[in-house]
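Usage

Read records sequentially. Each one opens with the input sequence:
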Amino acid sequence: MSEMNEQLHNLRHSAAHLLAHAVTELFPDTKMTIGPVTETGFFYDFLPTTNFKEEDLPRIEARMRELAKKNYKIVGGQVPKSEARERFKGNQFKLELIDEIPGETVGIYSQGDFHDLCRGGHTASTGQVKHFQLTSISGSYWRANREGVALQRISGIAFETKEDLDAYLQRLEEVKMYDHRRLGKELDLFSFHEEAPGMPFFHHKGLLVYNKLIEFIRSLLSKDNQEIRTPLMMAEDLWKTSGHYDFYKDKMYFCTIDEQTDCVRPMNCPGSILIYKERPRSYRELPLRLAEFGYVHRYELSGVLHGLFRVRAFTIDDGHIYCTIDQVGDEVLKVLALADKVYRAFNFSKIKIAISTRPEKYMGDDQDFEKATNALKSALDRNGVAYTIQEGEGAFYGPKIEIVIEDSMGREWQCGTVQVDFTLPTNFDLDYIASDQSKKRPVIVHRAILGSIERFLGMVLEHSKGRLPFWIAPVQARILMITDHQSAYATSLSDQLTAHGLRVEIDTSGDKISAQIRRAQMDKVPWMLVLGKKEQEQQTVTLRLADGQQQGDLTVHDLCAKADALNAQQSE
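and closes with the structure output:
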């Protein structure tokens, strides 16, 4: 961590304590739990006697500012656990944490008469916490366990300077304006309903975009991948063999059929593996690339659900590559090249690569993990690909490459992944017949380019501010008529363009042309085809673009040629 980053981290940590200090003064019966730093600020989880409301935030924030102005020194150090237990004897959450901390002492930091269990990392005083703002109240659970105690989370942002805070707030306004949930509703793409929390309902136009995404990825994979489809539900024992049960059971859905417990799949790997095991495999078949657009379900806490970004049901553009260890490097590089091509088709040009290493909780042996990690590093080094290391962030069955893209508003999104896996081939006793007729164990390279198709769609909507690339727009052209006399010509034009493969609508409102243009702009339609008396007589079109540029005297042939060129951009 750099010195500047450490300063900012400490400031946000102190802001979290300042929040807890203010809450316990205003609501003395509230119990504190934990309050960590986040990417842009901080949060603190509480158990109040009466739930907080949004209107409580200004009051809490005002008290935080009062406490900051008092400029309390922040001091701390190690104290015996017995003393800590006495100090927090009425708080079961703090007592649980104290019991879990190794050793006979724990850290406690104080400011004025406020004390909190803490490892440290703070500003020198509360007065240094100046540029902050509380942002939201949401639900959470103790230890993120939905069977545990329900809590309330208060979140905030904090920065070192007023300029940084103002810049972030301005960006938040921009993000709010182009929030994909808002755009999804305005553009009639998708919706969410209480009858299925966290599970998106795609409308006709939204499904067009969703299917175009799949069609695009499928077109890039068709040459050297075999597409498969596996069941949505499979026996519980399968997930115990794979290891997903031990690591994911709290996020899995279960049902009982014919006295057998089945699991709704949270991952697609086991289904692919069963197809691999269907018959003996030869080294000549490797690498065997099995692709699947797999619909999965994972339970997420209601408090963290967020539009298409955090859902309970989504589709992964999944792939499982069965190969030898010597083939891993080339396969990884092919996936990265494919990912780069895909992201650039959506105008994502800033792409970063990170290798995530063995997590604290994992399967398999250390040697295989190390071998897999070195295979990833070697492939990237060999081709001069820059990357960073994320210690302990790998999957439970192997290390992985994470691909991060930056959007037009400067936000970074973890998107695609490439994971090298020695563990599942061992768990399922996979093999192939080598050239010397011996049986050998394959490696599985797990890959996803978009990751969650739903999440990627949300990212593209916000990145493009709702103006999707022409080739994927649900309506590519809308025909606007100056008078009803152009109706027959509009229908003929629509038929010709539709026959050429364009997605076309006719505005039949009868409104003035200015109102039709304004509506098409609000609906983010890429092309407005304006028809008047002259266009009707000459059998031409005036093309108006979203930015106001116009081009007249275009024939149907001209329009089709332009559309073909724009549609072809996705594959360049």
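Summary fields computed downstream for this record:
- The mean pLDDT is 92.
- The radius of gyration is 28 Å.
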